Each structure stands twice: as structure tokens, then as C-alpha cells.
């Protein structure tokens, strides 16, 4: 496991699928230049997704080989597909950056929190089910995917109370602006400690 120093943070964006966690994380990445860690997955690419930007879309065989070689920091299986974060990707990002961004589901977030403790700051991004379903339709998700995601909605919402911060994402720009101000406080604290 990669060792974080006391001035580094992992900012994790979690919450129900379709609530806008990835959109908010991307806005914060652009405004504060905190790089995101890109996960690997065996699931098919959705219409709006870009390989190597949203995920590394890889085969089951390739994923299994990386897992066998202990390349992943953490992996989860969800709805029959594998997801994982590679330790080398995290190490490389921390070589030139003090903080990084991750977009994870609750299970992945719990794993990272257990590994890195108070160096992990969790932002729970949520919306009600109607809004989440509408956003999934707009991004081109199939009805099957939408039903699968909404089946996990309540389960995902239960994690909200465990997170350091929670935001109802009625507007991604406003949410990202509010979180950016908060993140600047975390980042300023680090500079003051030097």
C-alpha cells in the first residue's frame, strides 16, 4: 500500500449513480487542478463515456491478470462487472501532486477510507431518485442499467451519514463551487503546516 504523508489528501466523491458525483469531481479537477485517479472496469462503455478519461475499459482477462499480479489497490465486483484502482497510478499522481480525486461507489470508498484514514475526505453527492433517473436517461443509459442503478439507490444513500461532507446536487456548478471553497481550506491548512 502506498504511504501518504501528512500533507496529502485523497478527496473521494461518492453517492448514488446519476447524482452527478463524476461531473462535480471533473469541475473541481479543472478549477483546482487536482488530478483524478481513473478506475479500471470490465463493464461495457456507455454512449457518453470516453476510454482512458472516464474509465480504462479492459477485458475480463486483462483485469484478472492485473489482479493476479497484485497491481490493484482495491477491487470490487458489482452487477457482474469488475472495478479496480491500480496502486501505480496513485503513486505516479502523488509524485507531482499533494492531493488526488477519486470517484467511487460506497464499497470502494469504505476500502480507501480504511486504508488511509483521515487522509481521505469523503464528499457524498446525492439527489432524489426522480432526478437521478432523469439524468441517467439524458446520458443515454439503457432502461436495464437505470433499473440496476436505482435498485442500489437506498443502499447507497445509507452511506451518507458516514461521510465528512454531503451535498444535494440540484445544480452541479453550484455544488462544485461550494466544494471548491471547502477544499481550499483543506489545501490551505496543508500549506500552513509547512
Number of domains: 1
CATH architecture: 3-Layer(aba) Sandwich
Residue runs with pLDDT of under 50 for 5 or more positions: none
List how many beta strands DSSP finds: 8
Supply the CATH superfamily name: P-loop containing nucleotide triphosphate hydrolases
The name of the CATH topology is Rossmann fold
Structural class: alpha/beta
Distance between the termini: 25 Å
Major sheet strand order? 6-1-7-8
Question: Approximately how much helix is present in the residues?
Answer: 40-55%
Average residue-wise pLDDT: 92
Largest sheet: 4 strands, parallel
Based on CA atoms alone, the radius of gyration comes out at 16 Å
Order of helices and strands: EHEEHEEHEHEHHHEH
Proportion of residues in β-strands: 15-25%
Globular, elongated, flat, extended or rod-shaped: what is the shape?
globular
DSSP summary: helix tally: 8
CATH class category label: Alpha Beta
Question: What keywords describe this structure?
Answer:
single chain; Rossmann fold; four-stranded mixed β-sheet; 194 residues; four-stranded parallel β-sheet; 45% helix; alpha/beta
Overview of the molecule:
With 194 residues, the protein is α/β, with parallel strands linked by helices. It has one domain: 3-Layer(aba) Sandwich (Rossmann fold). Helices cover 45% and strands 20% of the residues. It has 8 helices and 8 strands, in the order E-H-E-E-H-E-E-H-E-H-E-H-H-H-E-H. The strands form 2 sheets. It has a 4-stranded parallel sheet with strand order 6-1-7-8, sandwiched between helices. Strands 3-2-5-4 form a 4-stranded mixed sheet, with helices on both faces. Strand 4 and strand 5 form a beta hairpin. Helix 1 (21-32) crosses helix 8. The radius of gyration is 16 Å and the shape is globular. The mean pLDDT is 92.
